[in-house]
Amino acid sequence: MKSKDFGLALLYVVCAATARPQRKEEPCQAANRLLAQGQFEAARDKYQTCVKEGTPKFENLSNLGMVDAQLGQFREAISAYRQALALSPDNPQLHMNLGLAFLKTSRFDEAAREFSRTLVVDPENEKALELLAFCHYQLKDYELTALEVARVHNLKPGEASAAFLLGSAYLKLRMYDKAIPLIDQALRTTGSAETHAILGEAYLGVKAYKRAQAEFTKALDLTPRMPGLHAGLGTAYSGLGNTDQAIAEYEKELATEPSSFEANYYLGRLKRLSGDLEAAKKYLEKAEQVRPEDPSIVFEKAVFAFQSKDYPKAEALLQQVLGTYPNYSEAHVLLSQVYFRTNRPEQGQREKAMVNALGKEAQARQSSAGKDGQGYGGNSPDDVVQR
Fold it and tell me: Which domain holds residue 357?
């Protein structure tokens, strides 16, 4: 071929290549590319087209669920994950992602089921176990929470989230001596307002009121509007005998959280102790509206019944309280007085012996945790108040 002809041939090939249209990107490929680039809305559109036009594959449905979750569309994410699981029912990551979507929508029962299924296929999945424990915590099964998350903590003793969850579970179980070091460990790692608040609650549980005051104050400095902080600080002040400061803190809590059980309950209690029975009943009625049949409210009703010399009613109410919290010393004190007033000295002496035994146990526990203040003349209601 002559050079002139070669040049024409080369020009033809180049022009032909330029004129040929580029191959159109498939919707599934485009969706994967957009997902990798973090363009979630565009990726969702492509995945929807991909799923609609082609044979559904669990990978594409799973990715569609992931994109929906990233966009906060958890209802759609749940639907996509369920469709993906129909094609790959034993996929542990799909169960994990579906559990997370349920968790984001506070559907803790369903989330727990999915995390459990993850563990059936992948029993060494520590994150699934920790999330399962968190679900059980939200469902108020604190014994099961502690059992599950303790396994995670033993495997990863330095992990703050597991330490915090285990400490919180122990706190709910009133195992304060175990709760405090775990929450303190999490605090050193995170230093969040929530961690300071939880540690403050733990210190209230062992009547270490100065330490509780310090933790609630730190939490307020970090997050001034967090619900419950002024109520917790008020209880710490009450334990230290600073009644005026306690009342001021409870009133601050009610100014922003009028349905606060703790603020209404403790204000009612303080008013009763000061002799303002009308105000006491007003606050206690508000607290009862928030938590009907709460043992701490039942105890206050028993006090009013005792003061009005309705001893059978007081006894029945106190037995109700002790049926839920058998170690509540103040209820044993009042029940012993009921027995003495109704000419049952042997039963009264038995209750006094129980009070003495509980007092020695509490003193030992408080000493190990650093007790630094008594509240309400040594008779604290913290044993029955659930925060």
Answer: 294-365
